[in-house]
Write a structure and sequence with these properties.
The chain has 294 residues and is α/β, with parallel strands linked by helices. The protein has eleven helices and nine strands. The strands form two sheets. Strands 3-4-5-6-7-8-9 form a seven-stranded mixed β-sheet, with helices on both faces. The protein has a two-stranded antiparallel ribbon with strand order 1-2. The longest helix is centred in the middle third of the chain and has 19 residues.
Length: 294
């Protein structure tokens, strides 16, 4: 078993880094200027430093690289404003799934996260909000009991403090290692959001690549406003599974953000570099007040 104190210190250090330098590149010039990465969409090579300066968006074609929860906060929230919320009880192992607890401990040690969802309070261009970010590097951002509990607590906190709720989704769906318990989180999170909505709360949901399975079928699709990053894959079952099931060829671009916006599922596709300003504008339009000081 890994040392829980060491793991906690790693997570706290990452949070301190966000508070100190939330809008600075994550890669220092000496570390990233000469390290190049080829874009998986257009093949153009860009230095890691250039990509960090461009918020991990390809300068040539606009491809949005998947990013983690800490980097998401790094480029989005106001300096020094993020404070992590309590995540509730630790994750259980209801199926006694082989090596599952060890895998979770290894991921906690590696990422500094307690589970796939990071939640907290923050300010975005002066607007106070509760934010949740799923991290695809933690078991593909899958939803188990810990994710469901953490999100439900975040919703309740937003409700109690009359704050807007913003959730960035990136997930492979419900976590198979927890079986029916993971599927129960669909109902749990949906019920919490229904109560939040009934009490007048504003919920902004942002789809990032990829968002699939039970997350798409529950809390990710329940926002008052639905945004997405360009090119994000959004759906329940994957395109290949659907084609094999229905025995038909799917339309070009099926389940991409662009296709879903065209067919009315999404309100808007927003470039990552414009998300901060767009979110601030939406919060202002929904009656929230901006404060420039923390």
């Amino acid at each position: 078993m890994t040392d829980p104190i060491r793991r906690r210190r790693l997570g706290l250090q990452r949070l301190r880094d966000i508070r100190r330098k939330p809008m600075e590149p994550a890669v220092a010039p000496s570390e990233g200027a000469e390290v190049f990465r080829a874009c998986p969409k257009c093949g153009e090579s860009s230095s890691k430093l250039k990509l960090n300066e461009n918020q991990m968006v390809c300068p040539a074609c606009g491809y949005h690289y998947p990013i983690g929860a800490y980097y998401r906060l790094h480029i989005l929230v106001d300096r020094g404003s993020f404070q992590e919320l309590d995540g509730g009880a630790p994750v259980a192992d209801p199926l006694d799934f082989p090596n599952y607890p060890d895998k979770l401990e290894a991921l906690r040690e590696k990422t500094g996260l307690r589970d796939a969802l990071l939640t907290g309070t923050c300010r975005i261009d002066g607007y106070r909000a509760v934010i949740g970010v799923l991290d695809g590097s933690f078991l593909m951002g899958s939803m188990g009991a810990a994710v469901g509990e953490r999100l439900a607590l975040a919703v309740e906190y937003a409700d109690a403090h009359h704050l807007p709720l913003i959730v960035f989704s990136a997930s492979g769906g419900a976590r198979m290692q927890e079986g029916i318990v993971s599927l129960m989180q669909m109902a749990k999170t949906s019920a919490a959001l229904a109560r939040f909505s009934e009490r007048g709360g504003f919920y902004l949901s942002v789809f990032t690549h990829p968002t699939t399975g039970g997350v798409t079928a529950s809390f990710a699709s329940l926002g008052d406003v639905l945004l997405a990053e360009p090119g994000a894959l959004i759906g329940f079952a994957g395109p290949r599974v659907i084609e094999q099931t229905v025995g038909q060829k799917l339309p070009e671009g099926f389940q991409t953000a662009e296709y879903l916006e065209e067919h009315g599922f999404l309100d808007q596709i927003v470039d990552r570099r414009a998300l901060r300003a767009t979110i601030a504008q939406l919060l202002g339009l929904h009656g929230y007040k901006r404060r420039r000081t923390l």
